[in-house]
Amino acid sequence: MKPFSQSHLQPCNLFHKFSGPILLSLFLVVVSLDVIESGSVVKTLPGFPGDLPFTLETGYSIAVIQYLVFLSLYYCHSLFYYFIESEGNPKNDPLMLWLTGGPGSSVLGAIMYEIGPFTINNANSTWERQMLQLKPYSWTKAANIIFVDQPAGSGFSYAKTPEAYMTNDTFATMHGYQFIRKWLVDHPMFLNNSFYVGGDSYGGILVATIVQDIYNGNQVGERPHINIKGYVLGNAGTDTHDEFNSRIRYAHKMALLSDTIYKSTKENCHGEYLNVDTNNTLCVNDLQAVDKCLGRIFVEHILEPICDTPYTIKYDIFRRGLRSIDNDSMHIWPLPQVQNQACRVLLSL
User: Fold this and answer.
1) 289 exposure class (CB count in 10 Å sphere: 0-12, 13-18, 19+)
2) Are 237 and 101 in contact (CB under 8 A)?
3) % residues pLDDT > 70 (the chain)
4) Are 294 and 325 in contact, with CB atoms under 8 Å apart?
5) What pLDDT is recorded for position 74?
6) What does the alpha-carbon distance between residue 164 and residue 74 come to, in Å, rounded to a whole number?
7) pLDDT tens-digit map of 101-129
8) What span, in angstroms and rounded, lies between the C-alpha atoms of 280 and 269?
């Protein structure tokens, strides 16, 4: 790997006279943000034969944000990124910032299982050694993509104090916007490329607000000017209530629920499956039948199996609450069968 560092700043030593969360919530004032960025070009990966046939750069963008000037309160976030250069025409192909969900999931899941250039070769992998293979329909065939672990605490991104891990959608939007501005300063060869922001799952909450910040920044003349052209949402979280309630209808359309169970549940619950009246015993009983039908369905991808391990956390189909981690109540595949399945577990904070 070849390391590099394009910009310089004082080391990220945090110093603050007061870190009271009450004052922070009442008197939040962002007065400065500076960033150090360092990265490495990765030539090879474990499990992949030979050199990578595309350019992979990984690194950190370290943001120092002064929230309260009169209290000298500073927080430091180190956001980890994977940059995969387009395999087509990097100079002219679009540039995309990709955010994943959770919130708190590593963006490595998006690289390996969604739009990235490689994935696990399950047929030739073992528990001790995972093998990688290329994907023929990766988005990086036609786009330069920056995958970012965010917020701090996701993937390899981190902070140096407990206070700095406290976040919300506003902070995450600010960090994402400042990240791409500084990244473009350090990668000026991509300043003229058409730029898009993309994301899936909970990333859909942040994509639109980051895009709005980009447009606002361009309008007031912030530099660098970002050549924003649009955004992309994939299976995005935008309206929790309607999306969760739509799962019953989706399960029925995919033949995971019988006509009888679906009709009874719809009538007795009046289309409300998330915020359920516990006194409505007919609805509660129907939903128990629904959960029994869908309990062995992998919600994130209904064609994939559930991986049952002692560490697997079970959710019900509506994410109404954690189920027991006790696997004795479930039908467990024997271990050799699990080993032969292309299993993956998606966990977030």
Assistant:
1) middle
2) yes
3) 72
4) no
5) 58
6) 9
7) 777 788 888 898 889 999 888 888 887 88
8) 8
pLDDT for the residue 308? 60
Structure tokens at 244: 């969760």
Beta-carbon count within 10 A of 120 CB: 16
Q: Judge whether residue 337 has pLDDT over 60.
A: no
Out of 163-167, 229-233, 288-292, least confident range: 163-167
| Domains (range + CATH), the chain | 2-236 (3.40.50.1820), 240-340 (no CATH)
Query: pTM here?
Result: 0.72
pLDDT at 325 over 70: no
| Of residues 77, 78, 63, the one with CA closest to residue 32 | 63
Assign 3-class secondary structure to the chain. Answer: CEEEECCCCCCCCCCCCCCCHHHHHHCCCCCEEEEEEEEEEECCCCCCCCCCCCCEEEEEEEEEEEEEHHHCEEEEEEEEEEEECCCCCCCCCCEEEEECCCCCCCCHHHHHHCCCCEEECHHHCCCCCCCEEECCCCHHHCCEEEEECCCCCCCCCEECCCHHHCCCHHHHHHHHHHHHHHHHHHCHHHCCCCEEEEEEECHHHHHHHHHHHHHHHHHCCCCCCCCEEEEEEEEECCCHHHHHHHHHHHHHHCCCCCHHHHHHHHHHHCCCCCCCCCCCHHHHHHHHHHHHHHCCCCCCCCCCCCCCCCCCCCECCCCCCECCCCHHHCCCCCHHHHHHCCCCCCCCC
Please give the structure tokens belonging to residue 233. Answer: 């949402």
The number of CA neighbours under 13 Å toward the Cβ of 6 is 15
